[in-house]
Amino acid sequence: MDKSIEPLFNDEYTGEPPTKRLLAFIQGEREKGKNVVGMYCSYAPSEIIHAFGMVPAVLCAFSNGTIKIAEETLPANLCPLIKSSYGFIVSDTCPFFSLSDIIIGETTCDGKKKMFELISEKKPLHVMDLPQLPDEKEAVLNWALMIRKMKNYFQDMLKKEISDEEIEKAIKDTNRKNTLMGKIFDYAAMSPPVISWAEQYDIIALAQSAAGEDIYPKLEDIIAKLENRVESGYCYGREGAPRVLVTGCPIGGDAAKIYKIIEDAGGVVVALDSCMGMKMFRNNAEEESDDPIVSISKKYLKIPCSCMTPNKRRIEELDNFIEKFKPDMIVDFVLQACHSYNIESHKIGRHVRDKYDIQFLKIVSDYSESDIEQIRTRVEATMEKINA
Ligand code: SF4
Ligand code: SF4
Question: Among 29, 33, 250, 329, fewest CB within 10 Å belongs to which?
Answer without folding.
Answer: 33
